[in-house]
Amino acid sequence: MAAGTSLINSNLTRFMAILTMERLDLPPSSTFFIYIFGIITYCLILFFHSVLLVTIFVKRDLHKPMYILLFNLSICDLLGSTAFYPQLACSILSQTREISYPACALQGLFIHLYGNGSLLFLTVMSYDRYIAICQPLRYHNMMTRAVLVKFIFLVWSVNCTMIGASFVLTLSKEICRTNIVDTFCNHPSLLKLTCEDTRVVNYYGLFTIALFQGSSILIVSLTYIKILITCLSTQQKNSISKAMQTCGTHLVVFFTFEVNVFLALLSHRLETVSPHLRRAFGVSIIIFPPILNPLIYGLKTREIRQTMFKFLQTKVSSR
Description:
Layout: H1 2-15, E1 18-21, H2 31-58, H3 65-94, E2 98-100, H4 101-134, H5 139-142, H6 145-171, E3 179-180, H7 187-191, H8 199-234, H9 237-269, H10 275-300, H11 302-317
Parallel strand pairs: 1-3
Antiparallel strand pairs: 1-2
């Protein structure tokens, strides 16, 4: 009975704990401008993604696998941005870096769901492009609505299960520190709060990283090598140009995201990396992809660009 009471008290103490994140080191004279910049950036992200989501949802011509997958990628971006920007704005406004343990865990969970979800959807999008270019006659039979729904369900279920399990393992540990070694909450920084044995959590984390990163890089590499071989063998300039334009957009997004993720993961694993550099790598994952993705896909994908302009013109003319 005493052991059970002690466990309950320990859990209550942990979940009532107030954590302190790393300082932003902002000059007092520029705090206001950085706050406004953060608000504007978040509003732009909300606007760009909202336009993209509404455009894909309303226009039936865009109810195709590639755009439905892009729809889910946009949801992942919004999830990560919403977990980061409002908390950052409140922190700047209140001039405190304190956050409760449950709020920190929730922020970290949403940010990791965003990161791994984006990676998985970009991987499925590469497979979709491979089928469309390398096996165009079988595309509609292979990428049916049922298959697409299975892909989307698989991505979200795997993402939520793997990331959820990782956080459950971490949150079950008692903490002996209250300092978050980052500008926002994430799994590595939460794990560093505990003084217990974390080998199981670390092994599971490495397994998760290897599974997500390894499989994604392998699938994307194989699909695009096959796409390149197919394009070179056709000897048709129009088909090559169209394929490269479509795939180039996806590769830019995937490459940008992967570079950010790789640098952030490496900085947390190497103790010699400067804390400022580690924080910069971590923040770049949340800042750049969510604002670049809708711009890249919206401006480079002809069908989306034309539909967005027509949709906005219709709304403006109706007022």
